[in-house]
Write a structure and sequence with these properties.
The chain has 201 residues and is an alpha+beta fold. The protein contains 7 helices and 8 strands. The two termini are 24 Å apart.
Length: 201
């Protein structure tokens, strides 16, 4: 991640529900993030490749952050985590140019613009990593989340039938969406970073 991007945080974001602090996730946030993950509805975690409510999985996420492969943002209100996002990539895979965007929100923070803002900020992280394509995946019944991504230019690429099994044994379809990162870069170059991210000057 470039120094210019890291210097963008921490920062305060004004939303409909009030201000939140946005900053990069660090190793010292591991315990607080584990608590946040365990407070989320179990269904929210189904689109993740691994269950981050488990301590070993959260520890692995922190190691990826420290290695520079998974830049992650935390949104805090009153010092409490109310949302997070991550851009997950694997430079050693056959798709080193692709990043997967993952966004999680506390239920009380939904429908107020926080999810949209975290996705927008994730584009900037993706650009700093030199990624060319972003993907996002979620269960098909998470219609509000799908709409947020589609409003930001993501388009459906695949529907994987019965791809996810929840803790009750029920199967769910998984939607895979994608976006061309370079298209976002072009918009930023044309209108300027502030306009591209909906900020006031």
């Amino acid at each position: 991640m470039s120094q210019d991007v890291s210097e963008r945080y921490p920062r305060s974001i004004e939303l409909e529900s009030g201000n939140v602090e946005l900053r990069l996730m660090q190793a010292s946030d591991e315990a607080a993030m584990l608590e946040f993950a365990n407070q989320l509805p179990r269904h929210d975690l189904l689109f993740l490749r691994r269950d981050i409510s488990a301590a070993p999985v959260m520890a692995a996420w922190v190691r990826e952050i420290e290695a520079g492969h998974t830049p992650s943002l935390l949104a805090l209100r009153g010092g409490q985590i109310v949302g997070c996002s991550a851009v997950v990539s694997d430079p050693h895979s056959f798709s080193p140019h692709v990043g997967d965007v993952r966004v999680l929100l506390a239920p009380a923070e939904r429908q107020h613009g926080l999810g949209r803002m975290l996705v927008q900020e994730s584009f900037l992280l993706a650009l700093s990593l030199g990624l060319e394509k972003l993907t996002a995946q979620m269960t098909a019944d998470q219609e509000a989340a799908v709409q947020v991504f589609e409003d930001l230019g993501f388009r459906a690429e695949a529907l994987l039938k019965d791809h996810v099994r929840d803790h009750d044994g029920s199967l769910h379809d998984l939607v895979v969406l994608s976006h061309d990162v370079q298209a976002v870069q072009s918009k930023m170059d044309l209108f300027g970073l502030a306009d591209a991210f909906g900020e006031s000057s």
